[in-house]
Automatic annotation (TrEMBL):
Protein name: ABC transporter permease
Gene3D superfamilies: MetI-like (1.10.3720.10)
This protein's record includes keyword Cell inner membrane: yes
Membrane-crossing segments per the record: 16-38, 75-96, 108-131, 151-174, 202-226, 256-276, 306-332, 359-385, 397-419, 425-442, 481-508, 528-549
Entry membrane topology: Multi-pass membrane protein
Family: Belongs to the binding-protein-dependent transport system permease family.
Species, as recorded: Bosea vaviloviae
Leader peptide range in chain numbering: none
Keywords attached to this entry: Cell inner membrane, Cell membrane, Membrane, Plasmid, Transmembrane, Transmembrane helix, Transport
Subcellular location(s) per record: Cell inner membrane; Cell membrane
Length: 561
């Protein structure tokens, strides 16, 4: 055989092929459903044919209610982002870089809000801070001091959403702190900087990519959140864009054109946030992991560690333990605050055929979707952070687009897109899995990329010089270094999927119902005690998997040492 036939394709051609394949896969998962949503919103069917129309745009632009919803979304989302970033960064630093007692346990508890379905967490805060029935207000009203806490306000919305998304920021920043070379802080201390100045001048600037990634992620989660704005905001007519989308979908027939235009509002907000992040990081280097071995430096707080631990425990009591106790109390009550208790709601979990079937569907969908999302996220992160392929930035933008669209609207886009195909995907668990991957792959990309850019390419270059191929280098060098971020990514998306409601709502059928749908249906008929028991089951599923993954990771670390 001639020698030129044995030659492999040029490297640039192979890279272009892989990039094209990645773009095609992500287009099917993420981009085409958005296009289908927008197209469906700007066309109407007349006489069996599609007709272009701008009636939805005119309606949205001309009515003040939609403008107020957009303004409310900006105010609440920025407030929630700031609160989540402050809480997340402080928790990550205290639990990763200091000798706070029971840091591992505190970190696991701090992630608990992720595993509580948003509308259940919001309902728990209704029982705590509602003007008439809130447990916090009952004693003050009895003492004639009025009702100081009102959860149905902008502040209540910001607080409830902020503490719900703070764990996402904490997980991303904590992963970056574990990968940070402590010699930078040690050099600052030798130069005379105090611990506080070292933290503000060295630590925080170095992990700036992770802080910005976590903040932008918190912002886009806030603008796309569905359960909390509907439950808390609509009570006093504080409508956010997602609430207006929900109201439009309740119309008969649903106003799909208006839903699409409102989704574009959110896309614009997300694009602005991502552009600001890119501008802030442009031209700066954040490499902190090189060929030099190191271990994360633990800062000794002396007796102050107990004070810090006490503050963290108080925060967890208000944000995690309190709402969970409320849910537990409701799950063993005949009805909320009845004062009479029963185990029937707990027995319902293993006696009901609905629970067994939806539990199987939830685990199958969640585990498969979380694994596929993390693998695709790793591939995209490596292409954008480790190659110089032309068009790689386009790949990242395609991944980030679904972040700006509320799950409810994106799910509609998925249904519109796959209804055009003859394949029997619609009405099965597979369309839910496809929708979850397309909607949330960007979360995995952000989590993994923030750690990948901290790893210097010299480590991989050294392996290649030593004779390792690309696959061996990836498996033996890159993957072990970014393993904490990969695990955090998987746990993050798993925790979202196990309690996802708005994404599943337009896509499920009777054979593909999940626990979140069963909880929503039960909540809609006013059986909150049963909803609370279902929430406990979802909480156990989330915490159990998190504990298992953490245990396996810890055993591997012990074996490695």
């Amino acid at each position: 055989m001639p020698s030129f036939l044995k030659r492999s394709p040029p490297r640039s051609l192979r890279q272009a092929g892989w990039l094209t394949l990645a773009c095609m896969v992500l287009a099917v998962f993420s981009l085409l459903p958005l296009i289908a949503l927008v197209v469906r919103g700007f066309v109407e069917t007349e006489g069996g044919r599609l007709v272009l129309t701008f009636s939805a745009v005119k309606t949205v632009m001309s009515q003040s209610g939609y403008w107020f919803a957009a303004w409310n979304t900006v105010v609440v989302s920025i407030g929630s982002m700031i609160l989540a970033a402050v809480i997340g960064v402080i928790l990550a630093w205290c639990l990763v870089r200091t000798n706070v007692p029971f840091a591992r346990l505190l970190e696991q508890l701090a992630t608990m809000p992720i595993f509580i379905p948003p509308f259940i967490g919001a309902f728990a805060w209704v029982l705590i801070g509602a003007p008439r029935i809130g447990l916090f207000n009952l004693p003050t009203r009895g003492l004639g001091l009025g009702e100081p806490l009102d959860i149905y306000t902008y502040t209540g919305l910001i607080w409830t959403i902020g503490i719900y998304i703070a764990p996402y920021v904490m997980m991303i920043v904590a992963s970056a702190l574990r990968n940070m070379d402590p010699s930078l802080e040690e050099a600052a201390q030798v130069a005379g900087l105090s611990r506080v100045r070292t933290m503000f001048q060295i630590t925080l600037p170095v992990v700036a990519p992770s802080i910005l990634s976590g903040s932008v992620l918190a912002f886009v989660i806030s603008i796309g959140l569905f359960g909390t704005p509907v439950l808390l905001g609509m009570t006093k007519e504080i409508y956010l864009v997602t609430a207006r989308i929900y109201l439009e979908l309740q119309q008969f027939p649903p106003s799909f054109g208006i839903v699409a235009v409102l989704a574009i509002y959110l896309m614009v907000l997300s694009v602005i946030a991502n552009l600001l992040q890119s501008w802030a990081l442009r031209g700066r280097s954040f490499v902190t992991v090189t060929g030099k071995g190191f271990r994360p430096r633990i800062i000794q707080l002396a007796t102050g560690r107990y004070v810090v631990a006490g503050i963290i425990w108080l925060y967890l009591l208000l944000t995690v333990v309190g709402p969970i106790i409320i849910i537990i109390a409701a799950s063993v009550s005949t009805y909320t605050w009845s004062g009479r208790f029963t185990w029937n709601n707990i027995a319902f979990l293993w006696e009901s055929e609905d629970v067994r079937s939806t539990l199987w569907n939830s685990l199958f969908i969640t585990i498969l979707a979380a694994s596929a999302t993390t693998i695709l996220g790793l591939i995209v992160s490596w292409i954008t952070a480790r190659t110089r392929m032309r068009g790689r930035q386009f790949l990242e933008h395609v991944v980030l687009l679904p972040m700006s669209v509320p799950s409810l609207a994106f799910a509609l886009g998925v249904s519109f897109f796959w209804l055009w195909f003859p394949w029997s995907v619609y009405g099965t668990v597979w369309i839910i899995i496809i929708g979850l991957i397309g909607r949330y792959i960007s979360y995995s990309v952000r989590s993994i990329t923030s750690s990948l850019i901290q790893i210097h390419p010299e480590l991989e270059e050294s392996a290649r010089i030593s004779g390792f191929g690309w696959g061996s280098t990836m498996w033996r060098v890159t993957l072990p270094l970014v393993l904490p971020a990969i695990i955090s990514s998987w746990v993050m998306v798993y925790s979202i999927f196990i309690s996802e409601l708005s994404m599943v709502l337009p896509l499920y059928t009777t054979s593909s119902r999940t626990l979140s749908i069963l909880s929503f249906d039960t909540w809609a008929v006013g059986e909150f005690s049963l909803v609370a028991s279902l929430s406990l089951l979802q909480l156990l599923l989330g915490v159990g998997v998190m504990w298992f993954v953490t245990h396996i990771t810890k055993q591997r670390q012990i074996a490695a040492t």
